[in-house]
Amino acid sequence: MALTKQTIIETISEEINQSLYEAKDTIEHLLEIIKTTLASGEDVMISGFGKFQVNEKAPRKGRNPATAEEMMLDGRRTVTFKCAGVLRDKLNTKL
What we know:
Helices cover 41% and strands 28% of the residues. With 95 residues, it is of the alpha+beta class. It has 2 domains: 1-40, no CATH class; 43-95, HU Protein, Chain A.
């Protein structure tokens, strides 16, 4: 099962004795900062966790699978994540 935003909010609320409203507000602000930074084309690096990197994809030829018609697909930006060594080590330690 995936960790949800609501679960993160509840965990923060319990662990640092904050109200659910305050924890939700904190998480929403954090996510908005990350989204705004990525949308502007900048990378987001969180020490000990990893780096969210914006990549530019060039326009390319594609094909409509329904009609087999060739078309040009627009360029786009994507986000990739590269985990920090600390996180990678934690993921690979035996339980």
